[in-house]
Amino acid sequence: MNRYSIFSLARNAVNYHKDWEKAWRSPDPRPTYDAVIVGAGGHGLATAYYLAKEHRMTNIAVLEKGWLGGGNTGRNTTIIRSNYLQDESIAIYELARSLYEDLSQELNYNTMFSPRGVMMMCQTEHELRAFKRTAHANRLAGLDCRMIDRAEVKRLCPIINDSPRARYPILGAYYQPRGGTGRHDAVAWGYARGADDLGVDIIQNCEVTGITREGDTVTGVQTSKGYIKTNKIAVVAAGNTSAIVEMAGVGLPVESVCLQALVSEPIKPVIDCVVMANTVHGYMSQSDKGELVIGGGADGYNNYSQRGAFTSLEHTVTALVETFPIISRLRMMRIWGGIVDMTGDRSPIISMTDVKGLYVNCGWGTGGFKSIPGSGFVFADTIANDRPHPIAEPFGLNRFLEGRLIDESVAAAVAH
Amino acid sequence: MTGRVQLAVIGAGPAGMAAAVEAANCGASVVLIDEQPAPGGQIYRAITSAARPGKAILGDDYENGAKLTDTLAASTVDHWTATTVWQVTPEREIYMTRDGASHRITADAIVIANGATERPMPFPGWTLPGVMTAGAGQILLKTAGLVPQAGLVLAGSGPLLFLIAAQYLRAGGAIEALVETTPRSNYRTALRHLPGALRTPGYLRKGLGLLAELRKHKVRHVKTATRLQAVGDGRLQALRFSRAGRQHEIACTTLMLHIGVVPNVQITRALNLPHDWDALQRCWRPRRDADGATELDGIFLAGDGAGIGGAVVAELEGRIAGLASARALGTLETGKAEARLAAERSRLAQEMAPRPFLDALYAPSPEFLAPPDDTIVCRCEEVTAGQIRSYVGLGCIGPNQTKSFGRSGMGPCQGRLCGLTVSEIIASETARPMAEVGYYRIRPPIKPVTLGELAALHDDQAAAADRSLENAS
Ligand SMILES: Cc1cc2nc3c(=O)[nH]c(=O)nc-3n(C[C@H](O)[C@H](O)[C@H](O)COP(=O)(O)OP(=O)(O)OC[C@H]3O[C@@H](n4cnc5c(N)ncnc54)[C@H](O)[C@@H]3O)c2cc1C
Ligand SMILES: Cc1cc2nc3c(=O)[nH]c(=O)nc-3n(C[C@H](O)[C@H](O)[C@H](O)COP(=O)(O)OP(=O)(O)OC[C@H]3O[C@@H](n4cnc5c(N)ncnc54)[C@H](O)[C@@H]3O)c2cc1C
Known about the structure:
By secondary structure, chain A is α/β, with parallel strands linked by helices.
């Protein structure tokens, strides 16, 4: 593997960057692997990387029906934060956030983690109270977060309309200074390059179409590139996970809805933090290129079309234009949607299943970019040792049977 | 402007006007939507304007447009001018902007007649100030009577290049040179199709007439030029090219480029309709049947947006799509429709006769399909051909991934200007067919819309069901 450094950069610049090695190979599948990971999104690739690096499982493959990073990993608005309400959530999201802090060094690949601060605005009394509660819970868990008042909100984000007469007035905000954003593609590419270097086969354009089992043990996968034998199958396919594990006769309590986002044309820097406005289902940050990245709420019904209703986005934009008056004349460049996989308690599933050798990791819903390093880390450990990692354990499937839900929906009332 | 309509036609060029009038005459209620202030489309642009240059300059074909605009004016068609469509959905909702606000309507049937765009002609220096497309020059001529007075060079190939040259000469403009890039081998392949083309000899006669005009004005006409390069310090100063192994340079201050037109597929792509690769014209064509019907119920295509055929073909296809949509809407009896459609189809076949000849003769030179490394390919984000090749070297396997590698196709033109080139480069680097490499996934809005306009969406039908889930995680 080419190591990326200032010297290799300079050397290659002389040749118009034409002599860089491929960042990962394009191998054909081998007939047998020790483990097969289905889905080359951030979670699948991170899982492969940590399996190879931490558990020395290198005879493994990641199968991807499209191209790596082409799912929601390449479609999200990259907010990273860990100030969830429940202890189980805090544990996994903070593990992920702290891994992000030095992921670029770990992978020798610039993943552009930018801890610019995430502000969750309080625009109703109810919201203010709910965030105070979260703030207390987070403080007990040792997270670096605090409530800030309207003046500080205005100082951190001068373009905000802080008029008390606004339709949605700013009453304060809950602030995580070391939250921020990362570069979504780079996270996928960095893990792909790292895993590939450790010997993992990443096979693109390879769709899993069936799972074979003998008794209650998996034996392999049918794919568009032929049959592959394996005794461990880890399905990490976001919204498609339930359809895939159904091939092995396992059902998942997951629903799919469309979540949308949009970007504006690029402008000079105007906002250097991430602002989330949950009352109006909107949030905004500015990319390095200068575009404003704006996200909305999820559609109110299930679908798989990757195309949401404009009206839900329009509600978000109407409110954001009131909160940030200067954005109204900006041109919107692209709208896109992704199908997100939601569980009833809005917490993910990281689990073994009743079928031996079948593992699932999904249900990240609207907020799974931020968790990629942590999720990959604990899921790899779960697969390698065939028992749940302690941080993964509460997120097992049996919580739905036992009623041990990790409720992040009503409790925190936040997106992303 | 909100609510439900029977038929919505997008584009008021010959195809759209014909479709709208035909369907309205069958009793359908029709709205015709176009972003321009007046009807006409590309060829008949500004035809209803008093200030336009006269017939002596733009020619007889142009004046024919008045017949169409007159019948349109006399019809019951509701024409929404200065209205830009930015999204069409398979459920036949149309989103558009007009007067600073967004609007949404739902139509029982839609005819998409949004025309062609000029094929990008990238080569080193094509982004210098002073270089523009010939079509842009023609728009300035038709709408404002602007004619460059000196230092003009036209380069490329295709019938429109000669037409525009002749229009400039008639308007009193001077042309330093017309530099043709049609490869010599094209003449040989085209010859085979000559007998077919002679079935409808009008086109060839017109072409020869244009060439005669160039000769009469003693315009320097260079043929089979290759390795084009526009040079200049901060702005265009000269065009360089090779011919028969020798380097040439012509000083100029305005360079107009043209190598044919290609269907504008932004709307049909955003609708996720299937597209076929046309290996001769080297462009994508949205798939449709003989009536212009697509895979999507109630969505029809007509004109250059569905496949390049020129103005007369566009008009005939428009009529066909108009009749077919009236039949689908139930305002035209099936039996009557069949008889009329059959007549239009046979005229269409006659008009299409010269196409194989023209397509073979003016097939674009490979030099402009996959240009040299230092050529800017994506103008919005300033990505060069060499950068696209280096992404392929790193493992990028298709046009959508080049977006993530280097942002090509993500600027304000929404990929219209680089889409074909990026796919061609990837196809040639990876030795894969274009049909497999594919095209950018087109994201709405088709044309940028401001957040203020979006916030002011007028929508009678705002489905209460769209209310957001309180969502969490
Ligand atoms: C608009 C939007 C905004 C978002 N914003 C944020 C945010 O700000 N912060 C945040 O933390 N999260 C955000 N998210 C959520 C986040 O994007 C996802 O939770 C996360 O990317 C999920 O990653 P993944 O690896 O599980 O899935 P994906 O990246 O979707 O990967 C799954 C892969 O599986 C592949 N696959 C599917 N079926 C098969 C098959 N049969 N065979 C082989 N491969 C298959 C798919 O092609 C895909 O590549 C957002 C999501 C959306 C849609
Ligand atoms: C720049 C240019 C110049 C040309 N000049 C000539 C010429 O002089 N002579 C000739 O014979 N042929 C010319 N052509 C070829 C031309 O394509 C056909 O002759 C003919 O105009 C095709 O008719 P049409 O109805 O299919 O499309 P067009 O005539 O192109 O009409 C399409 C219409 O759709 C509208 N439209 C497109 N997108 C949207 C949107 N999103 N929202 C609202 N409205 C939209 C456009 O404003 C346009 O009026 C030209 C083509 C181009 C691209």
